[in-house]
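WARN retry 2 of 3 for item q-0093 after timeout on previous attempt; input resubmitted unchanged.
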Amino acid sequence: MFFAKLFSLMTTGAVLLLVLFTVTWLIQLKTKNAAIVDSVWALSFPLLAVIYFIKTESNPLRNGMLLIMVLVWGMRLASYLFVRTLHHPEDVRYTALREQWGSRQHWLMLRFFYFQAILALLLSFPFAVVMLNPSAEISLFEISGTGLWFIAVIGESIADTQLKKFKENPASKGKICQDGLWNYSRHPNYFFEWLVWVSYFIFAVGSPWGWISISSVILILFFLLKVTGIPYTEQQMLKSRGQVFVEYQKSTSAFIPLPKKKL
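OK item q-0093 returned
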């Protein structure tokens, strides 16, 4: 029964994402800016959480807690990314893909967008598991997950704000942001984003089959450390900042905020 309900939820989520990312692809055909998919990807999680909430009838307090957590985090991140996309030309990630794909760029971009949709669906597993939990009690796992979520969202917001202010300062041109959290980690925003997913996992552990949600933690960590997160960002920073960034790499932790190394 549980897996039948889980399959139903995830299938509904898949249909939603198929429509959402197809429309997003059509929009980027018009605007010539595929970076819009970044904000839509962040937005997909609140939408999935809302759908799962509507389609389930278990503990409204637990489900409401998780729904608010996903809405606050997802909407903040989506709006931050959307504003960034709105005021800047297409990210070099996507211009490079267009050049690489040539005449096939439109259909390959659609495939890329659908990959983002699949990733979002897989990551939403803890939301579905929690929403299906029939228990009337709020467990220590859910309380602990909520506490960690507060820390993670505040940390990610602070990191984003510090970087935004640094970039807006004309005196920062050609320099590396080492303000606040960026003095202890080269990517504090990524670290706290990962911590958000850890909080969802902890929250989900209190539900039947919730332990499988560790897959979301591992998946997002893999992409941040090995694929689209740190590797790409550092490659671009080395091109634009050169030796200045090399020195920053030597002295500052890549991911977890830690005291600077003495060189």
